[in-house]
């Protein structure tokens, strides 16, 4: 049996924990916005931005930027890396949309059946998108090869 000559990367599990925390925060951009505003003790009248959509867009763009950078680092062509980043933008856009999955029971009480099924379908799509993003990040963090150093690009 061949010995594993590759050094162990002790940062895999903390990195996975950090990415999971990132996804949990991204799943609730509205709550995160109000939490950050309360933590910073910013009143509505003095706020630079009064919308949680900035958190929503920032979370999506950061994740897409990360995927494009990692794809380029691993030798992927620019067009392919941008295509992969665009797919992440679409999936993250659904996953980070400010719709509370925890309120599904309230969504089921909507009287109009068409609207009710649309909202419930989108809540299911959001849950699936978050699962796909988590699977993407778990695959990245737990890949067999050693993760690149921060100074490598």
* Separation, N- and C-terminal Cα atoms: 34 Å
| Secondary-structure element pattern, one letter each | HHHHHH
**What's the helix count?**
6
Number of domains: 1
Low-confidence stretches: none
Shape: globular
User: What portion of the residues fall into strands of 2 or more residues?
Assistant: under 5%
Radius of gyration, taken over Cα atoms and rounded to an integer in Å = 19 Å
Helix content: 55-70%
The biggest beta sheet is recorded as: none
Question: How do the strands and helices of this protein lay out in sequence?
Answer:
Elements: H1 12-27, H2 29-39, H3 53-73, H4 78-95, H5 104-107, H6 113-141
Features:
single chain, 153 residues, mainly alpha, 6 helices
